[in-house]
């Protein structure tokens, strides 16, 4: 079964984008190219509380998966 991401509503597209950003920030932290301040900076740019919560959950998920403290 395949899904066309272009057909998702804007809220779902944004959740996917926030998840990708969280993954990239944690990857950069693992590589030593960024620190925890990158997460703080990204959180400041997110306006809605539910989006901030989603982003933080994604960061926590990727920290577990990638073994980042």
TrEMBL record:
Q: Which GO terms describe its molecular function?
A: DNA binding; DNA-directed DNA polymerase activity
Q: Which Pfam families match?
A: DUF3283
Q: Name one GO biological process term.
A: DNA replication
Q: Which InterPro entries match?
A: DUF3283, PolIII_theta_sf
The entry's protein name is Pyridoxamine 5'-phosphate oxidase
């Amino acid at each position: 079964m395949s899904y066309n991401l272009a057909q998702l509503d804007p809220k779902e597209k944004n959740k996917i984008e926030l998840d990708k950003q969280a993954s990239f920030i944690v990857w950069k932290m693992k590589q030593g190219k960024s620190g925890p301040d990158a997460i703080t900076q990204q959180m400041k740019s997110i306006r809605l509380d539910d989006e901030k919560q989603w982003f933080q959950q994604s960061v926590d998920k990727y920290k577990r998966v990638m073994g980042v403290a």
